[in-house]
Amino acid sequence: RKPVLVIGAGGVSSVCVHKMAFNPDIFPEIHLASRTKSKCDAIAASVKARTGRNVATYEIDAEEVPAMVGLIRKTGAGLVVNLALPYQDLPIMDACLEAGVDYLDTANYEPKDEAKFEYHWQWAYHDRYKDAGLMALLGSGFDPGVTSVFTMWLKKHKLKTIRQLDILDCNGGDHGQHFATNFNPEINIREVTAPARHWENGEWVETPAMSNKVEFDFEAVGPKNMYMMYHEELESLARFVPELERARFWMTFGDQYITHLTVLQNVGMTSIEPVRYQGKDIIPLQFLAAVLPKPESLGETTKGNTNIGVIATGEALDGSGEKTFYIKNICSHEAAYEETGNQAVSYTTGVPAMIGAAMMVRGDWQGEGVFNIEQMDPDPFMDMLNAHGLPWTVEEMDGPVAF
Ligand code: NDP
Question: How far apart, in whole angstroms, are the C-alpha atoms of residue 78 and residue 359?
Answer without folding.
Answer: 13
